[in-house]
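Form P-L/3: holo structure prediction, ligand guanosine-5'-triphosphate.
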Amino acid sequence: MSEEKKSEVARKLELLKLRFKEKATTEIGLLQGAVERFRAGDYCASDITSVYHSLHRLSGSAGTFGFAALGEEARSLERLVKPLADTDDGLPERGLTTAQVREVVNEAFVSRVANLASLVSQEQGAPKPHDPSSPLIFGNKTEDSVVLIVDPEPDSARDLTCGLEHYGFLVNVFSSIESALANGAAGVSALVVRDELVIRESGILDALAVKPPIICIGAEDSFTGRYALAERGVDGFVCEPVDIPVLADYMERLITERDEGRSGRVMIVDDDPELLEHYGLVLENGGMEVRRVNNPAQILSVLSEFRPDIMLMDVQMGQFSGLNLARMLRFDPEWLGLPIIYLSSEEDREFQVEALSQGGDDFLTKPVSDRFLLRAVAVRCYRARQRDKLASRDSLTGLLKHSLAKSEIHKEHARCTRLGQTSVVAMLDLDHFKQVNDRYGHRTGDLVIKGLANLLRHRLRKSDMIGRYGGEEFVVALPDCSVEDAQRVLQSVCDHMSGIVFSGGGREFSVTLSVGMAPLGDFRTSDDALEAADQALYRRKQSGRNGVTVSGDEPETVGTVS
Ligand SMILES: Nc1nc2c(ncn2[C@@H]2O[C@H](COP(=O)(O)OP(=O)(O)OP(=O)(O)O)[C@@H](O)[C@H]2O)c(=O)[nH]1
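OUTPUT (holo model):
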């Protein structure tokens, strides 16, 4: 996030705080008037309920804006009033006596309400509004996958570097952890440390404010060693001798987890405009995509259009109850699996359990600090995405499954035809893969498949679609890309694939790749384009494998692009 954007967020948060102060001051004035009337015996049922709601609102929102003391005092008063507001037959017109009301709304209560006004000017002990200049959890996202390698041995550092560069990682080597960290760890994708003892015996990682995924390479694999590393905050361990594809796969998984953990689509439903805006800004500032809904009557239309990972919902919203809204959403099978998290100052466990049984999934109790909100939301978005991924992604590679890949290609065909752009579809197939399985075993074969998946993820753009089409067959769609550029990129994928050294059964080997590609928009349907790419792949296999063939090329012009 740019400096300008950060100060803009800080300015908006400050403005919201001022607006809250103004509203709270007015609300406390009204509360004072109401409780004084109670003392005089001048009240009706709705007065008691509205005092209760007013205290409930203050207790739920004050902490968020930094007025913890005000929030706590309002909560304590709310608890005292709650039995009066709750009593079914306790409303004045149903027999609640002035004496009973006075017992709760006594002199002390009135003076505590009056004192709320002075707490509006106190921010002591408050959860500090987030400083947008410091990342809340995960650090800055970088497009490139920069990896820092700490290895005191130049030869082994060189081997690691060469191996990882094939996957598209940008590698920087350091001889000590101190020099690597002095270079700055905040923006890097991973830190690979060969000097495992330094990590185990020093607290050097403890001081890191922003920690990238850290993988240690060690000579010995033992429970005690692994535990000591985990204790130090290390994320992964690889034993010597290092198998580069295994290490690359490990890194890929950790980086993906980290990247996915800091993104998410969140819909917030709250009738308090300041709270809604505050939550929205905090989550956006942390990298989330947010849709705010102030009017609960709009949730169905916004849901269909925005399709969030999770929904955060207030419980009491004027005439609407969050519990009923959650139950209503579950009428529709499409939203049965949507995680709904109530944001509520309701502390009563019985109520919470009842709310969860009616369609909600979780409770975040207000006031919630900015940091906690972001962490809690990020974790829940991550889980929701993981669950969706299980259904749509291939479990070995994490790439789109066959049917989803096909439907993405179908969409891209419609898009590029409509806009008159050139997009390319390609089929990729590992060469002589049966021999890999036969010679080195199925598990090693799996590692080769994962290796190609990781290579594609790194070498292609974020906007490209990658799917696992079959066993050792992949499909990619490259939107808005000329045939020449696609051919060049895919040839470089072939070159890097053949450069990766795999090992199995004590031997080292490499695997080549054949590709057939076709310009999507040149065909009437996406299936026709896929068929053409498949034909081109077939011709590539016939004419020597290891390279790219473009649909429509005559067999004699087929050749490896250099
Ligand atoms: N390890 C592993 N092997 C797989 C997987 N899916 C498919 N295969 C194997 O991939 C091999 C594909 O072999 P073939 O279709 O004969 O082709 P090939 O040996 O790659 O030969 P060419 O394509 O002609 O270069 C078969 O042995 C399958 O068992 C998988 O998920 N893991």
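COMMENT: The mean pLDDT is 85.
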